[in-house]
Amino acid sequence: MHAQMISVPTDPEPSAKLLPAVVSISVKKFQVVSPGTQAKDTANALTDPGSSVKYYVGSGFVIDPSGLILTNYHVVEDAFEISVGLSDGTLLQGKTEHASRVADLAIVKVEADHPLVATHWGNSDTLQIGDQVFVVGNPFGVGLSVTGGIVSALNRNLQDTPYDDYIQTDAAINHGNSGGPCSTCMATSSG
Q1: How many CB atoms lie within 10 A of CB 20?
Q2: Catalytic residues
């Protein structure tokens, strides 16, 4: 018995449409380094020897040309400063508009002097196990990272949140890619 070969589309067009919408997100957070330190605001934390400023990075993607960006909640959680790097190198200050710890999603707003390139939402109900997907991020703000794979499973329930209905993929998610989109070969964000 011989395995059947299938042809894999190599058209770079879908990822080329999505890449300009992917952003890097850098945040500053206070980290308590000694027990009993409660400094939560900038003025107190900067002068409190029991806290320090830590830098974290993640990714996100533009969901509306007006400057709305979707990322993971854990990327921006407790941040007192958010910087968003666009694909053209522009650096903008961001502000968390909405956030859900339970869903691990956050919307960050930036003010740009022009409409931003936004993704198009796909319909995850049309995904099937075996569909090709790719994951895009901008880890550490050093440039875009694209990995590919397939949909490994649908409707995963980890019994972790009321929203458990995850899409599982075997595409590698590089360190710093948290918040970046998982896309189908039709260049629509599916997760």
Answers
A1: 17
A2: 74, 104, 178
From the list 105, 52, 107, 100, the residue with the least C-alpha distance to 84 is: 107
- List, for residues 13-34, the tens digit of each pLDDT value: 556 777 889 999 999 998 866 6
With a CB cutoff of 8 Å and minimum separation 6, the contacts of 117 are 20, 21, 62, 65, 87
Of 41, 21, 15, 18, the closest CA to residue 30 belongs to 41
**Helix, strand, coil percentages, rounded to 5, for the chain:** 15, 40, 45
- Residue pair 82/111 in contact (Cβ under 8 Å)? The answer is no
Residue 132, amino acid: Q
d(CA 34, CA 127) in angstroms, rounded, equals 48
The answer to whether residues 119 and 188 touch, using CB atoms and an 8 Å cutoff, is: yes
Which pTM was predicted?
Answer: 0.77
Judged against a pLDDT cut of 50, whether residue 7 lies above it is answered with no
The CA distance from 139 to 58, in Å, is: 6
Residue 71 CB-density burial (10 A; 0-12 exposed, 13-18 middle, 19+ buried): buried
